[in-house]
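Email to the structure team, subject: CHK kinase-like domain-containing protein model.

Hi all, the expression group asked for a predicted structure before they design truncation constructs. Nothing fancy, just the tokens so they can compare against earlier work. One-line instruction: predict CHK kinase-like domain-containing protein, return tokens.
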Amino acid sequence: MTAEKKTTILDNGDGLFSTHVVLEDVQEVIGEQMNTKARLGENTKYTVVGDGNGFMSRVILVEPDWTVTDDHLPSKFVLKITSCMHVHGLVETMKAKSPNALAPEHEAALWAMFETEAQQLHNREVNLYKITEKWNKNDVMLSPKIYFSKKFDENNKTKGFLGMEFVSDVTIRHLYANAKPHELHPVLRSLATLQAESLHLTDEEKQSIHGFDFKQLMGSMMNDDGMKNIYAQTRDINPERLTERANKVEAFGLDVVNFELACNLNKYIGIERDVLVHGDLWAANILWKEEDDGKYSVSKIIDYQLIHMGNPAEDLVRLFLSTLSGGDRQAHWERLVDQFYEYFLEALGDREVPYTIEQLKESYRHYFVTGGLIMMPMYGPIAQTKLSYSTDTENVEEYREILTEKAEHLLEDLERWHLYSRDLTKNHKEAETSV
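Reply from the structure team: attached below.
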């Protein structure tokens, strides 16, 4: 008699929209955490939204038919369920593009990592929202309101979800759209507030969001085979314009993958206190409102699954690479960092300043290579996956041009900042030895 296969978070489920979460799970948590006897009636409407925006969750718009009228119950809310179904699609896309690039042992390691990380990512996000709720700064932080949540634990390995505020009339400006530099100011203010408030986290709060391991998360994708795959995917965006640039960066080999520097950057820059890092602050996690005059304003910042304590420039690199054109990023990054620092000093008030503006800029320069390598697959298969959901076929070539321009400037700067930063760890160790 063969043993029954154990169901894991990696598998599709029999619950809501092929997840493991069933309606009764949601009903139970709503009753407990929202202090109500109301249930989601039979005329409640459920609609999948956001497919193609994230790869570790299923996002559902719920329009409740509440069985009991209660003023504090929302007329609509978003149900975010941890799910790996989109990861399957991404891995298949990677394998289809380069069948030999993802070796079986590396694919197995990738899936094992996703199984472990999926639960931890969700729990950290839930814990982070509980922490920031105490700060009472949701307006400036642009955080959605959280109504209820269920975490993973020893007895619950497959059902993790969040119920959060629904914001109407918002859009995501994906990688194949470009924001203007000044439009990022509210995001910079939000990030500055996050960093400033994080300086008085308790040990218990820090422990509740502990566990992010960048090397473990990215190591299986940034080995020799993985990097070859990333460069191949980048060339595929526009072989004529990107092949030569990609070849130049690839020629550096694995020297460009410097986990020691990326994971311990504060030590090498001389910053003595870590700050909270969003960890996934890119275009898909910023919600925008389009005004009547065609201008955009930032509405919300979402998805704190990769939250961790680290270097203050990590989010800035990712934000600029994903939202700005390559030309604007190169021309304006220092001015934007200056603006961020002004917001940071304002949020700190009279508290001690943990790093200088020059330390912040040096951090940006030295973290850029790691942040850029992480972003490269976003320009390739992830953008292509998102485009596959789009019905806007008329503008596909325009989108491809935007991605090409971003990739051109990214590859150019990868070379520049790798040459700038490659000896930092070696020189630091030599200096320690000589003392």
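The chain has a mean pLDDT of 89. The first strand starts at residue 45 and ends at 49. Ping us if the truncation boundaries need rechecking.
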